[in-house]
Amino acid sequence: SEHNCQGWLEGYVLTGRHGLFATYEAFAMVSASMSVQHTKWLEAARGLRWREPVPSLNVLLTSTAWRNDHNGFSHQGPGLIDTMISMSGSVVRVYLPPDANCLLSVADHCFRSRDYVNLIVIDKQPELQYLDIDAAREHCARGASIWQWASNAGSGEPDVVMACAGDVPALETLAATDLLRQYVPTLRVRVVNVVDLMTLFPPDEHPHGLSDAFFVDLFTADKDVIFAFHGYARALHQLLHGRPDDQRFHVHGFVEQGTTTTPFDMVVLNKMSRYHLVEEALSRMKVQPPGATDLLAYCTKMLERHYTYVREHLEDMPEVRDWKWNG
C-alpha cells in the first residue's frame, strides 16, 4: 500500500496540485526507492528549461520508533532519514519539528515549496508545546537556534551544549537540562534545537548548511555537545563530519533496541533517556561541579526504579509521565 499511496501522490503533484503522504516511519522504507527516484527526476528536470516547477513531494513520517506502545520491534526503524540525506542537497529537505507549532510552520513552508522532496518526522501522539506560533516560525526559519529560555549560560560560553533534533529527543534533552539546572546550578548549560536537519551539513554540501561562523555561534568551537537525535547516530555523524572538532559531538539516537513497551522504556533501552544524557554531560567535565555526585546517584536510582516500575505497572513512572518544563 505504501507504493500505491506514494505513486498516487507523485502523480498528483505532477499535475500542479499539492499533497502529503503520511505513513508509519518504519513502513516508509517500503517505498524508499520511489523517493530516491523522484529525487533524481527532480534534479534532472532542473536542467530542462521547458520543465515547469512542480509542487514538492511531502512525506510525513509518524508512528515513529520512539512511540510504539502497541506495536513491536518490527515497527521501529528511522532509516529513511539515512536514505534521503545521501541524495542531492539541491532537492532533499529533512525536518524534525519538536512540537505542534513548529510542525505547522514547517508544513506551511513545505506545501508552498516547489521541486523538493520534503521529509517531515514527528509522532502522532500528544506532545508538549514549547514555542508559541510566532517563536515557532522564527525558529523554523533559522533551522536551528539556541533555546535561551531553557539555557542558563546567558550570552557567555557554556560548559556543555545539550542539543536535540526530533520531538522525543527534545523532551528528553529538556528534562535532562532541568535536572542539571536543579542539581548542578553552577554548570552553564546551553540548549540548541535543530528543526531543519540539513543546516548541519557544511554549506558547500547543502544550500541550507550553516556557515562555520554561525555553526560555532550555536555549538561553540570546542565545548562538548551531547546530542539527542531521532534517528541513527551514524546519520548525524555523517552530517557533522568536517565541522570544527566534530569528535566532541556525542550522539545518542536509535541503536536498534526495542520491543512493545512504554515510551520512556524505549529511550532507556536506546540510552537516550534524560538520565543517560545527564550522565554523558557530567562524564565530559574535567572537574565535577558541586552537586554532580548527588545527581549521578539520583540518575542511577531512577533507572533502577524504572526497570522495576514498568514491569509491575506497565506504564511509566509518574515523574516521567507527568513531567513538564517548569524552568
Order of helices and strands: HEHEHEHEHEEHEHEHEHHHH
Strand content: 5-15%
Biggest sheet, open or closed, and with what strands and sense?
5 strands, mixed
Q: Please state the average pLDDT score.
A: 95
Commentary on this structure:
The chain is α/β, with parallel strands linked by helices. Helix content is 41%, strand content 15%. It contains 12 helices and 9 strands. The strands form 2 sheets. Strands 5-7-6-8-9 form a 5-stranded mixed sheet, sandwiched between helices. Strands 1-2-4-3 form a 4-stranded parallel sheet, sandwiched between helices. The N and C termini lie far apart (45 Å).
Quick overview of this protein structure:
This protein is of the alpha/beta class and 327 residues long. The chain has twelve helices and nine strands.
Describe the secondary structure blueprint for this structure.
Blueprint: H1 2-14, E1 21-24, H2 32-45, E2 57-62, H3 79-85, E3 92-95, H4 100-112, E4 117-121, H5 133-142, E5 144-146, E6 160-165, H6 167-183, E7 189-194, H7 212-219, E8 225-232, H8 233-240, E9 249-254, H9 263-269, H10 274-283, H11 292-313, H12 318-321
Parallel strand pairs: 1-2, 2-4, 3-4, 6-7, 6-8, 8-9
Antiparallel strand pairs: 5-7
Helix pairs in contact: 4-5, 6-10, 10-11
